[in-house]
Each structure stands twice: as structure tokens, then as C-alpha cells.
Write a structure and sequence with these properties.
By secondary structure, the protein is an alpha/beta fold. The chain contains 16 helices and 20 strands. The chain binds xanthosine-5'-monophosphate. Xanthosine-5'-monophosphate binds at residues 347, 349-351, 393, 395-397, 437, 471, 508, 512-514.
Length: 516
């Protein structure tokens, strides 16, 4: 196991992803809690992340001294490298030219860190630093340099301490993954035993131990997280899992049928399909304000789920005491906060996450340790069809927030058809997996058109597609114009009620991905 100590870098999670891709389990702890995390995890290696502070500032973050004395190898990245220098008796200075972006580094000594990757020549790396190490701490030597950082890679081979001025975890350092792999495998001697195959068996054991003879309820949405959680729990406890699929009527075309046939038909998992579309439509009648829509759906979802849970509790098989949740590792990681301060609510998100407070049940969270890409890999391991595994994110309130101006059964039907055609074209063009999320929005605007010899006066449909890595920032997807033309023609020809199609070219920020 590897402990990653976070000093507030934007890309600390990428370090964790790279370590795990190397087949080694790791956890992230904020630097303030590093000592306790070290004691709990008993790691065989430690990585210090980068961070926005300068070791020259008074009160800037430090690593616990005990970690240096624990006898485990340490890799310091950027701020982490400067910490090694500052805390072990070297020197760091500011005021030189910084290096931001692409740089070239050359190895100037042999090291297991460079094995098989960096023995010779110059290598492209991604840098982002102002300060630099100017005097090596005792025991260290410089093993790599760059034009603006004569001391760019440092090593104390005896203690197995390494420092990199650049970021090996980011995409722009092409050989970064191998350097990280060398650190965890060759230097720390760790084996590649973190695989989803191994995780599956461990997780099944852990679920059995936690649940005993109890029953588990799972709110299934059809998204990849709840689907994978349900499959895993079902493997562990069989029919003592009951899935509840609350169909709020705001799902995409064919989605409810797909979920029901996969879980009930294919996997034979007990599934209660609650068709509550009428109830939700009625509650949303005449509501236009996006936050109000979100709150109504969120609250009603919990009410409907709760009512269903009561029925299940009364079925004579004993009341379920556990609630399954598809919580992922990024939701669990504690972040290093320098400014703190309350953040503004842009949208009140609704998903099954709102359930635990109300249900007062014990939580089963088998995916707590996993990143999204690991959940997908686990889904494949469990035989979940690709159409579920690779599915774009879909918001809890569903199509309701893609109908600005208000939700009606008629508008829902129009939007569903347009959305299905758009996604069909995207799949046919082989673009689905290149896009983070793509969907249609039906605008509450009518425009005049001419079809055949007649005048039309119908709705405008907006198409949206974005690329993103985490949904926090996004760029609009640059389709080929011919593609957009094709999709628009099909939508207008095949969907009655739409006579004009526009494409949304807003990135996030300033836009958000969804329109409401
Ligand atoms: P925005 O629109 O805020 O969306 O840029 C970022 C990502 O979050 C999804 N989203 C939601 N997911 N419940 C969810 O589970 C919600 O209420 C919700 N609202 C937005 C959105 O689809 C995008 O992937």
C-alpha cells in the first residue's frame, strides 16, 4: 500500500490514479492528518503531492517528521520535493525564473527510478514551479536537471528518498507513469496485486461480514455506480438484496425497460419497479424555476422510496437494516483547504445520496475505495453490459432539467425522441466514448418554419455535447458540421413538434453542463 500525502495540489487524485494503474493500492490523506493515516494504513511507500504554498512562507505545510524516520521510501513531487530539501537540511530559494508548462529533463546519474525509461537523452515533462532547490540535503545527489532547475531530480538512494521538480502524474509527462511504476515496484518492492478481479473477491467477503444475515435495500438508478454496487452486493448475499428502481418518468427513451430487463431478467436480482411518473408529473405541474424543480423531485423521490421500503419491510422476511450506496473514493477524500469559506450553491444536486439522512439505515458502500474508471472495470469484471458500463452521466432529476419552462407529458415525449436520435447518430459516428455527456434540450421557444408547402410553428431543440474529465469544467465538443447537419435533419424529419435545431457552444465555466 502507498500513502499519498496531499499538500493541496489540483492533481493529487491523478497521483492516486497512476499508482493504482500500476496495480498498487493507495490512499490520499491531507497533510494535517498524515501521521494518523500512516499509522492506520501502514504503507510501504509514501508520496508527497505538489501544492500551492511555498516552503519559504512562514507556516506553510510540513510533512510529519516521523514519516522520514519510518524507513519507507518517499517520493516528493514539486512542493513535495522542496519539502524534502527544506525538512532534511537542504535549501530552497525563490526569485529565479520559474518553469511553467513543458520542459526537458535529462538524467545525469543512474537510478532505479529511471530503469528502462530514462537512462538516456532528454525527456519531456510538465513543470509548474517558482521556487527551486538550491542546496541538497545531506545524503542526496542531483540525478536529473533541466535548463531552469539545475537540481530537478534528487535522490538519496540509501534512504530511498526521491524528489521530482516536475509532475509525473499529469498527462503531459509522457513517461510519468513508468517513473511512478519504478518507484512503487522497483524501489518500494510492491507487487501489482490491486486488480478488480482481486477486489471483487475481497469486497464480497467484506459485504458478507458487514451484513451477516441482514437484508439490504438498494436504490437502483441504472447509472453505472448503483448498478455495479447492486451486482456486487447480490453476488455477496443473493436474495437478501432488494433493489428499488424509482421511475420518476424523467428517464430517457427505453431506459426503464433496459434496467428492468437487465436486473430482473438477466441477473435475476429481486427488483421492485415503482412507476411513479404520474405522481412526479403532477408535482411538477406549472413549475418553471430550476431549483424548485430539483427540490420537488429530490423530496418526492425520497418519499416514494421510503413508502416502498416500508412495504418491503412488511413482507414477512424481516425489515432491511442496510441501505446500499454507490459512494466513490473522490466523495470520501478529505481535501486540503487553504481558504475554506462557504462555497456558493449553483445547483442543489439530487441523487440517491439524499436517502441516508431520511432512512436512518446502516450504509453498505462497497465502492468507497474506487475511482470511477475502477468502477467501470469492476462492472466489466461482473459482466455488466458495455451499454451500462460506458454510459454518460445522467442527472438525478433527469429530463425535467432539460425542459426549461416546465415539464409536460407532451414535451417529455418530444424531448425523448429527439434525444434518442441524437445519441443514435453519435453512436453511429463512433463518437459516444469521446464525449463526456451528450443530450438534447427542448426549449420553450417556438419558431416559424416551412416544411413541404406548409408553414410550421414548432419548438426549438438545442443539442449539447461536452468533453470533461470530472464534470467540474468542460469544453463543448467540436463536431464536424456535417454531423450536426445530419442529426438536425433527422430530428426535424422524425420528431413532430420540432422544426429547428441549434448547437450549444458554451463551455463550463461560464456555462454549466446541464441547462438548469
Ligand atoms: P452541471 O450542470 O452542474 O453538471 O455542470 C455537472 C455534472 O453533474 C450532473 N448533474 C447531476 N447529477 N444529480 C446528479 O446526480 C443532479 O441533480 C445533477 N445535476 C447535474 C450533470 O449531468 C453533469 O454530469
Amino acid at each position: 500500500k502507498v500513502l499519498i500525502v496531499d499538500f493541496g495540489s489540483q492533481v493529487t487524485q491523478l497521483i492516486a490514479r497512476r499508482v493504482r494503474e500500476a496495480g498498487v493500492y493507495c490512499e490520499i490523506a491531507p497533510y494535517q492528518k498524515a501521521e494518523a493515516a500512516f499509522a492506520a494504513l501502514k504503507p510501504k511507500a509514501v508520496i508527497f503531492s505538489g501544492g500551492p504554498a511555498s516552503v519559504l512562507e512562514e507556516g506553510s505545510p510540513r510533512a510529519p517528521q516521523s514519516i522520514f524516520e519510518a524507513g519507507v521510501p518517499i517520493l516528493g513531487i514539486c512542493y513535495g520535493e522542496q519539502l524534502l530539501a527544506a525538512q532534511l537540511g537542504g535549501e530552497v530559494q525563490g526569485g529565479h525564473d520559474g518553469e511553467y508548462g513543458r520542459a526537458e529533463v535529462e538524467a545525469i546519474a543512474e537510478s532505479p527510478l529511471f530503469d528502462g525509461v530514462w537512462e538516456q537523452g532528454r525527456h519531456t515533462v510538465w513543470m509548474s514551479h517558482g521556487d527551486r532547490v538550491t542546496k541538497l540535503p545531506p545524503g542526496f545527489q542531483s540525478i536529473g536537471h533541466s535548463p531552469n532547475a539545475p537540481v530537478c531530480v534528487i535522490a538519496d538512494e540509501a534512504r530511498r528518498f526521491y524528489g521530482l521538480q516536475f509532475h509525473p502524474e499529469v498527462h503531459h509527462t509522457p513517461e510519468g507513469p513508468q517513473l511512478i511504476s519504478n518507484f512503487v515496484h522497483k524501489i518500494a518492492g510492491l507487487k501489482s496485486d490491486w486488480t478488480m478481479h482481486a477486489f471483487r473477491a475481497e469486497a464480497v467477503k467484506a459485504i458478507r461480514a458487514q451484513v451477516g444475515q441482514g437484508r439490504v435495500l438498494c436504490a437502483l438508478s441504472g447509472g453505472v455506480d448503483s448498478s455495479v454496487a447492486a451486482l456486487l452486493i447480490h453476488e455477496a448475499i443473493g436474495d437478501r438484496l432488494t433493489c428499488v428502481f424509482v421511475d420518476h418518468g424523467m428517464l430517457r427513451q427505453g431506459e426503464a425497460e433496459q434496467v428492468v430487463s437487465l436486473f430482473r431478467g438477466h441477473y435475476n436480482i429481486p427488483l421492485v419497479h415503482v412507476d411513479a411518473s404520474e405522481t412526479f408529473l403532477k408535482a411538477l405541474d406549472g413549475v418553471q424555476e430550476p431549483e424548485e424543480k430539483r427540490k420537488i423531485i429530490g423530496k418526492l423521490f425520497i418519499d416514494v422510496f421510503d413508502a416502498e421500503a416500508k412495504k418491503i419491510a412488511a413482507d414477512g422476511r424481516g425489515a432491511p437494516e442496510f441501505l446500499a450506496q454507490g459512494t466513490l473514493y473522490p466523495d470520501v477524500i478529505e481535501s486540503v483547504s487553504f481558504q475554506g469559506g462557504p462555497s456558493v450553491t449553483i445547483k442543489s444536486h439530487h441523487n440517491v445520496g439524499g436517502l441516508p439522512a431520511r432512512m436512518k439505515m446502516k450504509l453498505v458502500e462497497p465502492l468507497r475505495e474506487l475511482f470511477k474508471d475502477e468502477v467501470r472495470a469492476l462492472g466489466r469484471e461482473l459482466g455488466l453490459p458495455e451499454i451500462f458500463v460506458g454510459r454518460h452521466p445522467f442527472p438525478g432529476p433527469g429530463l425535467a432539467i432539460r425542459l426549461p419552462g416546465g415539464v409536460t407529458a407532451e414535451k417529455l415525449a418530444i424531448l425523448r425522441k429527439a434525444d434518442a436520435i441524437y445519441l443514435d447518430e453519435i453512436r453511429k459516428a463512433g463518437l459516444y466514448d469521446k464525449i463526456w455527456q451528450a443530450f438534447a434540450v427542448l426549449l420553450p421557444v417556438k419558431s416559424v418554419g416551412v416544411m413541404g408547402d406548409g408553414r410550421t410553428y414548432d419548438f426549438v431543440c438545442a443539442l449539447r455535447a461536452v468533453t470533461s474529465t470530472d464534470g467540474m469544467t468542460a469544453d463543448f465538443f467540436h463536431f464536424d458540421m456535417n454531423f450536426l447537419g445530419r442529426a438536425a435533419t433527422r430530428i426535424i424529419n422524425e420528431v413532430r413538434g420540432i422544426n429547428r435545431v441549434v448547437y450549444d457552444v458554451t463551455s463550463k465555466p461560464p456555462g454549466t453542463i446541464e441547462w438548469e
